[in-house]
DNA sequence: TATTGACCAGGAAACAATTATGGTCATTCA
DNA sequence: TGAATGACCATAATTGTTTCCTGGTCAATA
């Protein structure tokens, strides 16, 4: 079997299980049944290997997000479904959840960097969806980059942050959807 | 002069200059020209003294925020002015800025707690302003608590967070105001 | 009765010693 | 002969130990 592929799988497993810092190259080599040196013929260093794994994950997330959309549904419905899907992915997917935790607790720089890149990726993704909806005439023209950013941050705030300070008062998905419909989404319509 | 007051002033000075952790009770006592024991006749412990100082600051912030409003101006104009004022206060006011930094860098629990309380206070403040505007018939009824939360988080995102990941592309206040007008504010109008 | 500062226990720094790890490269196969 | 390997190395992280600080107390004081 392809050595590069075995290494990728071993690394994905280890990063998911132990995070970035606690994953050692020896560990990855052993899981992949490969000499440590072999890893370095495919990846320049630990961080590049890590980036490759994260790239895979971002692709997975894009697929999951696309799968959450309904052909023919409104921009609001699909944007909501996509964002909720990505935030669910964020706390469900073993690797993503581990990285969020490691970024917050250990502050590993490589992890913080990668998390920022992922968020950028998500915002870009939303941005293209907004632009497509504008082209279709469903939304009126707007600063798509900023609106995408605002939408992402709003969902993060309501889905992720709110619970941290309002442990008692859980927000239902309907309440979130309702709030955003009556504020942001409606005003984006053409 | 009032001993309690001297202690408060000394503590305010020290917390502003050095933050929570790096302020020692001996330090405060010396600045206040008071025996250390005396502090404990007014405040149960360091944290209570700290809370008293922060309470003062929240009051200052409320005053500054009220001062930024214009009688007779629209809800949007005043809400924008208030929120910008409070976020400016956040990075301008020596104590607030120090606490934000200490919360992020040192993760001092007492500081993190207090920062959460301050944000709660700000959101409550916005909430009352929203409710007043609803009573006046300027805004249509809405989930004032959630809308206040969303507004605060949106401003934080655009004013504070954006710059961290888009160092090159500074957001002008006009662009921020424009974005929020065309999304959130307009849809709140009665 | 209000104030004080020497005093104390517990926890944080500072330092030293030990271990673990990312990355290299001479050697080894296939 | 060139891809694969793992012993090896410098450095970073961790652990253990000692010392120093600091929040809080309270007997002495004014």
CATH superfamily of the largest domain in chain A: Tetracycline Repressor, domain 2
Distance between the termini of chain A: 53 Å
The fraction of residues assigned to DSSP E strands of chain A is under 5%
User: Judging by the overall fold, what is the CATH architecture of the largest domain in chain A?
Assistant: Orthogonal Bundle
Secondary structure: number of strands of chain A: 0
Assembly classification: homodimer
Layout of helices and strands, plus pairs?
The structure is a homodimer of 190-residue chains.
Chain A: H1 3-18, H2 25-32, H3 36-42, H4 46-67, H5 75-92, H6 94-105, H7 109-135, H8 144-165, H9 173-188
Helix pairs in contact in A: 1-2, 1-4, 1-6, 2-3, 4-5, 4-7, 5-6, 5-7, 6-7, 7-8, 8-9
Chain A binds a DNA duplex (30 and 30 nucleotides) through helix 2 and helix 3.
Keywords:
homodimer; 190 residues; mainly alpha; Tetracycline Repressor, domain 2; 2 domains; 78% helix; DNA-binding
What does this structure look like?
By secondary structure, chain A is mostly helical. Chain A has two domains: 1-43, Homeodomain-like (Arc Repressor Mutant, subunit A, Orthogonal Bundle); 54-188, Tetracycline Repressor, domain 2. Chain A has nine helices and no strands. Chain A is elongated. Chain A binds chain B through residues 116, 119-120, 142-143, 146-147, 149-150, 153-154, 157-158, 161-162, 165, 171, 175, 178-179, 182-184, 186-188, and chain B through 116, 119-120, 142-143, 146-147, 149-150, 153-154, 157-158, 161-162, 165, 171, 175, 178-179, 182-184, 186-188. The structure holds a DNA duplex (30 and 30 nucleotides).
